[in-house]
Amino acid sequence: MDALRSLAILFVLLNHVNMRLLLGRVPYTHGLPLQLVSSLVWNGQRGVQIFFAVSGFLITSMTLRRWGSFARVRVRDFYALRFARIAPLLVLLSAVLSVLDLRHVRDYVIPPATGGLGQALFAALTFHVNLLEAQRGYLPANWDVLWSLSVEEMFYLCFPLICWVLGRGNVIASLLMMFVALGPMGRTALSHGNQIWHEYSYLGSMDAIALGCLTAMVLWRCRLSRLLIRLCGVCGAVLLAATLGFSIRVDEWGLGRSGLDMTVVALGTCLLLAAAAQSGWSSPRVLRPLLVPGRRSYEIYLTHMFIVFALFGGFIAMGKPLGAVPILFLAAVVAATLVGELVARLLSEPLNRLLRSGLIRAGRGTVLEVGAERPM
């Protein structure tokens, strides 16, 4: 799980550094193979799709472990857990961005056409940044990253209520399969030609979360054979390698136009999750440092644009030397990881434990596994 999230956050980081370079008219890709460039710096959206699939798998697995079945889910406790995990850093980020906007700091000022600071702040705290941007245009990059949190948390606002109302797993599974089937349509026909909604819509992103949920439900009920575990691992790796490493060819096959490319990414992620979960596989110790970005993916995701802007500003001040571009990419990854680790240790984890303890103690006393979940 951490390996997949590390891969995902790497794609997001590289994509956002790439966007700064393109906006700064730095021709750093000149002479490089198109597929290499596409695989390294244009897979940000697919990286978010990996996050969604992992999140759906993780939340459903933890829900079934805590309560044993969907019918026994305690709605209040579910919301308390999500609030404790998401709210501290989201509130702090919103406050910092608000101050930067009010002080008219470059790269952080919200365009008046989008409704200004009040509209952006309201959208961030009520999980409809994606809808605001589809209607009024892009927000500054630090606000824009909250589109995926809007999709994810809107799903989890409904998830415990669905469990409480429907209860039975097979009914919930049918609903989730409907989301999977409608996901490609949300990215194509139902986006009505709106490019932002094509990428940011609720329905167009929830198929990955739903696939993650379904994977967790299957593994909760079934024990896969050794052969099937290996088959899941091989097929998942092939699907991800094909969509991430040969994205241009995938688009030529029409998967992008049909919206199925993102579904394939989510499916490959879920197959790898199934193989890892039931085989008990863990990465070699030598690779453990590479998993740190995955463990801190939420903190890195919400804070990395501060790093990208700061480093890119230094790159511009140096005169945009092409030889320094690889160093810029590497520095962004390392610095964002260090900041994410620092934010997690000093803010997210302490407040997560404190809020969980206080909120649940005020409720009915559900036994919690504090720190067990680290969704994006």
Main features:
mainly alpha, globular, disordered C terminus
Describe this structure in words.
- The chain is mainly α and 376 residues long.
- The protein has a domain at 1-42 and 295-376.
- It is built from 18 helices and no strands.
- Helix 4 (75-102) runs antiparallel to helix 5 and helix 6 (129-136) crosses helix 8 (146-166).
- The protein starts with a helix and ends in a 15-residue tail after the last helix.
- Mean pLDDT is 92; it is low at 365-376.
Helices and strands in order, then pairings?
Blueprint (H helix, E strand, L loop, with lengths): L1 H22 L10 H8 L2 H24 L7 H28 L13 H10 L3 H8 L4 H4 L1 H21 L2 H19 L7 H6 L1 H20 L4 H20 L1 H6 L2 H4 L1 H20 L12 H4 L1 H21 L7 H37 L15
Which stretches of 5+ consecutive residues score pLDDT under 50?
Answer: 365-376
Give the overall average pLDDT: 92
Q: Output the helix-strand order.
A: HHHHHHHHHHHHHHHHHH
Task: Please tally the β strands and state the result.
Answer: 0
Overall body shape: globular
Name the structural class.
Answer: mainly alpha
Spatial gap, N to C terminus: 12 Å
